[in-house]
Amino acid sequence: MNNEIQKQDSRISDSVLHEEDPQVEAALRNFRQSVHSWSEQEYSRTRMPAVASRRSSWSLFANPIAAWGLAGVLAVSAITVPTGIHFRHEQQRIAAEQAAAEAQRQEELKHQQEVQQAAMKISDEELLSHIDSDLAQAAPDAMEPLASLMNETQQ
């Protein structure tokens, strides 16, 4: 029912408009015709489907900023990668030399300890003979130079 009322209102307003100003009516009719003709022309025109163009990987170099950026990355990596490899190799070499030096030092220390232990292993008879010779001395070792002077002056 609402639709019928709206249709009647639009007919009444259209008829009032036609009667009031024929010049406005002619302008609106011309505008409507031009819109319809333009729409028909656009819809009847042949169109080519958009073809997705294949971009090659070399098309990146067409952009100068991308090309310079890539050149910079290549230059930096050309310097840093070999330098990093060299430093890592150098550190490994130094670590190997330090490990070899440490192993040699440990071996020398072990040999010295064996020599000291061998020197400490004196038989009982050798120890007793050492003690006898120390007791048999006329003067202690520290006093020996003085004792020899006294012997010389007495002669």
Structural class: mainly alpha
Radius of gyration: 58 Å
| Unreliable residue stretches | none
* Order of SSEs: HHHHH
Largest sheet: none
Number of helices: 5
Number of strands: 0
Distance between the termini: 162 Å
The residue-averaged pLDDT reads 80
Helix content: over 70%
Overall, the morphology is rod-shaped
Percentage of β-strand residues? under 5%
Quick recap:
By secondary structure, this protein is mainly α.
How are the elements arranged and paired?
Elements: H1 2-20, H2 22-44, H3 64-120, H4 124-136, H5 144-154
Name its key features.
5 helices; 0% strand
Please tell me about this protein's structure.
The protein has 155 residues and is mainly alpha-helical. Among the domains are: 7-39; 87-133. The chain contains five helices and no strands. It has helices at residues 2-20, 22-44, 64-120, 124-136, 144-154. The longest helix is centred in the middle third of the chain and has 57 residues, at 64-120.
